[in-house]
Amino acid sequence: MLKFTDEHEWLLVDGDSVTVGITEYAQKALGDVVFVEMPEVGDTVSKGDDAGVVESVKAASELYAPVAGDITAANEELEGDPSLVNSDPMGAGWFFKMTVADMSEVEALMDEAGYNAFIAGLE
Amino acid sequence: MRYLPLSDTDRSDMLAKIGVQGIDALYCDVPNAVLNADIDLPNHKTEMEVERHLTKLAAKNTVAGTVPFFVGAGAYRHHVPATVDHIIQRGEFLTAYTPYQPEIAQGTLQYLFEFQSQVADLTGMDVANASMYDGSTGCGEAVMMARRVTRKKKAVLAGGLHGQYRDVCETVTQYTDDELNLLTPNPADPAAELQDLMDNVDDTTSCVIVQNPNMFGHVMDLSALADKAHAHKALLVVVVTEIVSLGAIKSPGEMGADIVVGEGQSIGNALNYGGPYLGLFATNQKFVRQMPGRVCGETVDAAGERGFVLTLSTREQHIRREKATSNICTNSGLCCLAFTIHMTLLGEKGLRQMAMLNHKAACDVKAALSAVDGVDVLNEVFFNEITVRLSKNADEVVEALAEKGILAGVPASRLMPNAGLDDLLIIAATETVTAEDIAALASGLEGELS
What we know:
Chain A is an alpha+beta fold. In chain A, 25% of the residues lie in helices and 36% in strands. Chain A is globular, with a radius of gyration of 13 Å. In chain B, 38% of the residues lie in helices and 13% in strands. The chains are: A alpha+beta, B alpha/beta.
């Protein structure tokens, strides 16, 4: 199941954990990504907490925990090659994985159709 | 650039526009008693009279350079060649403002890059910033950087760290939940200072801050301390208040430092009554994104030509706001330029020669004072500064010698009041000290202590 937040983050649900990244829309708006600061593996976060930073040539954007849970992994590939965020934002450019404390927080998020309508409304 | 003064018509137009009768009406919120208070200032004087008056005032000072001068403890009197002032006075350097537009600031950015390269070289670290206000505020920044890097909030400050640097660290953390463990000074025993630091490092420590040479002039090998800190995932912060010392002693980088904070005043800059000074800040590549301050980088322009720019700007507060590494948005530009020019003129060879002259002067002071009754030299391994224990109150001795035209040094109690250091005098000897100066100091002390 793929879900989206209004901060342009996607969640790929796998059992009781999710993989989190940023969308095509977000990577295009950011421009060339030069650095990604990850959340600490093991940290417990609430929905909306700071969970790292994406830095491009022109801006630094916060990453947020889309739901409450524990950070279980960070994508180490991005340390050596942050451009993966631009070239493959929905796949190899994932940021972190986390457990989900409350599945209803995930269910409340937008699905793909909802997100596409959302970004259409932004143009 | 032309000066375009306002006319009376301009003024009345503006006042009419905002609906105000006269200039005085704009000060309506200031209490009358304060606004129209009698200020006891003399009438204006002619240029000649002012010059005469100020010259008389200045003549009351005992000026370093006209008398035997042994005052150090964080700021040092060195010879700065005339060339330095000649170059920094050039309009292109003197009036150039902050280099945020690289297109029109290549000259400034190039010297900043050279400065950073010099500082990184001297300190044995990977990267340095374009300077901070001074060593003491740099030290405060290091505490905050160590917290960001380690996510721990307990900093351990050595007993031999300059008393005023400790004060600054306390000031910058007074409203945060940082904890500072201020260790007791050990004026006579640097080994004990090191052991005390080792004993106070644990897994909750963010950093250990140690000055080398320390406030009392002792030079220490910090390698074991570096290992201990790293074993507990803490950072070693080394403070260097006399940058010339790096022309003679092992660099902090070689000893395992993670952050180096320094005072660059000794090179290119005069004593300046306490400022402006030149904060040096260097670290290793892996921590560069947590480093505060401006950073200049070398790159190529659209035509492939080498150019320089300010870089890693997203650390800074104009982009990251409250999440920035610091609220500093400047650097000590002219002092930094003076440092770069002086260091370029010296080169490595010149700096090492200068360092040796300093050390020799301090050795001569130690030899002369060891023969004086009532003076006990506390240093074995030192660079250009020693601490002596006097048989009388150091502050009183310094005052008495100052009356006689000898500036004998800094009483340790000035840097750390109420710490039981009242009989200690910190004496600096740079390349500007002569044999006559040393003889005057020795006989002056003899006179005061007998």
